[in-house]
Specification:
114 residues; 0% helix; mainly beta; 4-stranded antiparallel beta sheet; 6-stranded mixed beta sheet
Length: 114
């Protein structure tokens, strides 16, 4: 049962930018808070950014000022604009509600390397 499909990842040099998209097959308006998470091998999946239906956002300290989360409820899509990327941003990125209530997607790999 596919519910979330992440895309937009890739290989980028330090300082570069990427825009991730998360398309949901469910109505995301049902979930007041949507979030982006990331996971590196051997490390738990951590929250990166959240956004409510009212547009209130919250970010992990490590990405504040560099990442911007947004959502389009009409398209059931959540976005993550990532600027000034650093090697430590390398991870698989996922979206879900907060707390997670949907089946996890396959994620999208972001690799920041020169």
């Amino acid at each position: 049962q596919v519910q979330l499909v992440e895309s937009g990842g890739g290989l980028v040099q330090p300082g570069g930018s990427l825009r991730l998209s998360c398309a949901a097959s469910v109505t995301i308006f049902r979930f007041n808070t949507m979030a982006w998470y990331r996971q590196t091998p051997g490390i738990s999946r951590d929250m990166v950014a959240t956004i409510t239906n009212g547009g209130v956002t919250n970010y992990a300290d490590s990405v504040k000022g560099r990442f911007t989360i947004s959502r389009d409820n009409a398209k059931d899509t959540v976005y993550l604009q990532m600027n000034s990327l650093k090697p430590e941003d390398t991870a698989v990125y996922y979206c879900n509600a907060l707390p997670p209530r949907l089946f996890w997607g396959q994620g999208t790999q972001v690799t920041v390397s020169s």
